[in-house]
Design brief:
Layout: H1 7-22, H2 29-74, H3 77-85, H4 94-118, H5 121-142
Helix pairs in contact: 1-2, 2-3, 2-4, 2-5, 3-4, 4-5
Length: 153
């Protein structure tokens, strides 16, 4: 019985089975390497599935706060419209969170474009800090922070 029925756990179990039951029967080194690479992809997916909704929700709020501040400071109707079009819903369904994240990202991009054009150093610095955090989050989610064959049970 699966006591932790999550996407990450299912993927981790698949990796464990591949490494335990399938990998030993493969004698071709090239095929072993291919299978090993596939297990890395599965582990990366397990890692991403644990964090991606949380990260997108957190980042969306930061993007909208930045864009709203830029809209208020500059009076830009374009940035204000982008903020108005974006909202963070209550749903935790991945596709809904992605849609919210895309809208918040558009608002952030619209605001960043404006501050870059107007050379507003304060907002540029703040936007760059947000982008650095985004890059760190992407690296943590997509780079395979997990060890091959890890088990979190």
């Amino acid at each position: 019985m699966i006591t932790r029925p999550s996407t990450s756990r299912v993927l981790e179990d698949v990796v464990e089975e591949i490494l335990r039951d399938i990998m030993p029967s493969i004698t071709d080194p090239a095929q072993q390497i291919r299978l090993h690479m596939l297990t890395i992809v599965l582990n990366n997916c397990a890692n991403a599935s644990e964090r991606e909704i949380s990260v997108m929700r957190d980042e969306s709020a930061v993007y909208l706060e930045f864009a709203a501040d830029v809209a208020a400071a500059t009076g830009s109707p374009e940035v204000a419209a982008a903020v108005e079009a974006a909202h963070i819903g209550a749903s935790l369904v991945l596709s809904d969170v992605i849609t919210d994240y895309q809208r918040a990202s558009r608002a952030f991009s619209t605001a960043m474009d404006l501050v870059m054009d107007t050379v507003d150093r304060e907002f540029i610095g703040r936007g760059e800090d947000i982008l650095r955090t985004r890059m760190d989050n992407e690296r943590a989610i997509l780079s395979g922070v997990s060890d091959v064959g890890r088990s979190a049970s």
